[in-house]
Design goal:
- It is a single chain.
- The protein is α+β, with helices and mostly antiparallel strands and about 350 residues long.
- The chain folds into three domains: about 120 residues, Recoverin, domain 1, CATH 1.10.238; about 90 residues, Sandwich (Immunoglobulin-like), CATH 2.60.40.1930; about 100 residues, OB fold (Dihydrolipoamide Acetyltransferase, E2P).
- It has eight helices and 15 strands.
- The strands form three sheets. It has a five-stranded mixed beta barrel with strand order 11-12-13-15-14.
- It starts with 8 loop residues before the first helix and ends with a strand.
Amino acid sequence: MAAIILPQKDEFTSNVATVQSRIQSISQSNGMAKLLYANFQNWLKSSAMSPVKLTQDLDVDKDGTISGDEFASLLGQMTGEKPPEWVVEVVFSFVNADPSTGIPVADWMAFLAASGLEIPEELFVTPIIVTGSLLLDNEQVHVNDAVNITVSFNEPVDSYGLAVTNRSTGATESFETKRDEMDDPTFDEFVLESDEIGEFTVDLLHLGVRLDSTTFTVHPRPVLEEEPLPAEDSSLVEDTVEPVQGEPVETTVVGDFSSLLERLHTARLRSDTEQIIAASQAHRVRFTVLSSERTLLGEGAFRNGTTLTCVHENGERFELMMQSDERTFAKGEHLDVTVVPHAWSMALRHLICREG
């Protein structure tokens, strides 16, 4: 048979205690069962056979179970004659098994342990201890700024949980991510955006156990003073056409996206980037999708939407938060979208936009 692999030691020990309890209960109400079990224990002691050797010899068809016929063969070796069916049924009742389906090897080994045999330590599965960590790209942000979070584990996980708590109000939002939603069974990236002011704690959970915790603070967005408009130069004023009453007015999409990115890169202070973005306009941008992540929290139509990592046609990277809907985005996909500049990541040195 294949190598004998038993569950973790604690689980196996619990199973042994259950078998011992059943043996005691059945023996108290059935004198023949008590005598039969005592004879079996004596045979085990006198045989000096290891539990592994005994199990391997018993499992003739190597299917990982001890069948009724296989156990009857063992009793025949003990007594010199084939035992009646009721004897096999009694022994199988000790482990709550049926002779027609057999005893799984793990339960059979628990029966041997309950009968006094010592089970080798190397047969038990070594428990896997999962550790995980959280990494934030920025711990001090303003309202509606995006926070990029990376989650990593030392072992593959089937799922993980995230709890985001506003320490100022005590309110907590929880998220569960399955393996098929992760970038990798040991790694995941996503974007978290808060429309609330306060101090937040992010807890990483696995099977109900907290693996790591981190914090970030959301500050009010500063009020920018409006600069006085320069004196009007009539030579630079373009003629405007008033819209005809009743006709729809289209949103103007203007501005040089590459020029905006250059100005942001040269800005040294966060306040400078905020002024540049506040004064910027919507842009029609062509780009290629590098990756897509979930946008947790967020506000309005962007809540639980998708954040794309993109590369502009000039080679510049930026992030784009798309509204929450049924759309999916593939790596390498080319898109042409109206974007509205939203924030500048001082840590990653790239622009974060919203779908216009």
